[in-house]
Amino acid sequence: MENLRSERIAAIVGVAESDLGVTPGKNVLQLQAQAAKAALADAGFEKEEVDAIFTAGNWAWSPNLMLAEYLGIQPKYTDGTNIGGSSFESHVGHAVAGIRAGLFDVALITYGSTQRSDQSRNRPTPVVQLTDQYERPFGLPLTVGAYALAAMRHMHLYGTTSEQLAEIAVATRKWATLNEKAFKREPIEIKDVLESRMIAEPLHLLDCCLVTDGGGAVIVASARAAARAKKKPVWILGHGETHTHQSIVNMPDLTVTGARESGKRAFEMAGVTHDEIDVAEIYDSFTITVLLTLEALGFCQPGEGGAFVSGQRTAPGGDFPMNTNGGGLSYCHPGMYGIFLLIEAARQLRGECGARQVENARLAVVNGTGGVLSSTSTLILGRD
Amino acid sequence: MAGQFPKPLIDTDSRPYWEGLERQELRIQQCDDCHRHIFYPRLLCPHCFSDHVSWTQASGRGQIYSFTVVHKAFGPFAEQAPFVVAIVELEEGVRMMTRIVGERETIQIGASVQVLYEKVEEDLVLPYFEVIRT
Ligand SMILES: [Zn+2]
């Protein structure tokens, strides 16, 4: 596999969030326009320089067409890959491929959702078709029920405890207290997680991500274009992606995510080792998502995830800084969270994170997860 | 919000399956070429890609692969909570989503289960499972 570390093909040069949390009166196009304008300003680029557009969502029959029209962009290259919350990590990987092929120089990647204001989640549909018909009539609440099935099996196989899962929620909240944009900032303890309402055993309310509105945008530029950006480039050193199933029933092994493959390829492409990673941004739709991902990425062995996150190791001051913005558990989670992993990783590598800055962060791993542990997309990012 | 019960939109893949359940038969497919069992039903074998697949009646016995107790449910399921949703692995080697009925204490991963046919609506029978006491 080619080693991108030495090649410096493309970089993230601009990132921004839109308004986050509860955004009544704002629609998904406004949120994405707001984020796109701010990300371009962050990069020091004009809209006219954008020649590729990437977005994912279910707010239009063809989100790319509606978004590009709204923004006034006629792209040379367009990609609407939708593999759930990890779509945006894949968009970055696909942008690198397109840039390497010489097809475009500057890509705009956006996401927006008003799911909290819409209260649009979990509306059961009266008719279920195709492969959904064999499952939806049993009433498993998605997505939490699927993740609960995975957590239950991990506990059964390895003795993983609810306390260990709670360590993740508590550590993530500590990071959120350092981020003024985080939705939930009051400190919590392990007992708060364990005493929070049971949603789907073994997952409690505080094992689950937030439901917020919000949007984000990321600008990816070729090395040539990155040279004229306002900010220092955050190089995209490695990428891997895969999807293993759509429905949780068809997950080959309920405790092993596709990050085992996507992570391996991303690390190989980057030519870096786990020890070199300074900061980890790991999709945290649920606490179990993080635990399974750490194992699958190879930061620990299968079954060791519980021990790995114990003792607040991933909290501020711990030796494995993770989800430093407060994550989907405490900062924001508008349905598909993956773009926010990228925004935080870029800011950490640019040293812009103030109180929550990981000292001298040079290399970050970003892992998106989509669907019900269905898709994973891993990136290794680094600065000069 | 109660909402409507989600009903399968029966198609030519699924018709033998749903019709079997109406007759209290759990039907799955088997590949004529590699002989592996297949669930959910489909046009071709996902293992060897043969399009020679046949219907067979499953034993209805299996083991709980994983389960969850749902405490917060939505729509028509809200008032049923708490209830147990599981993935059951049949003796034939295929997995399916289901409900487990019976005493919560007996429900655990690895427990042996047997199918039962639950008429959840006038026009819908679902395969539920119960733990076999050994
Ligand atoms: Zn076959």
Automatic annotation (TrEMBL), chain A:
InterPro entries: Thiolase, Thiolase-like, Thiolase_C_2. Residues 240-383 form the Thiolase C-terminal domain. It comes from the Bacteria. NCBIfam families: PRK06158.1. This is Acetyl-CoA acetyltransferase. It comes from Brevibacillus brevis (Bacillus brevis).
Automatic annotation (TrEMBL), chain B:
InterPro entries: ChsH2_C, ChsH2_Znr, NA-bd_OB-fold, Thioester_dehydratase-like. Pfam families: OB_ChsH2_C, zf-ChsH2. Residues 55-115 form the ChsH2 C-terminal OB-fold domain. Residues 18-51 form the ChsH2 rubredoxin-like zinc ribbon domain. This is Zn-ribbon domain-containing OB-fold protein. It comes from Brevibacillus brevis (Bacillus brevis).
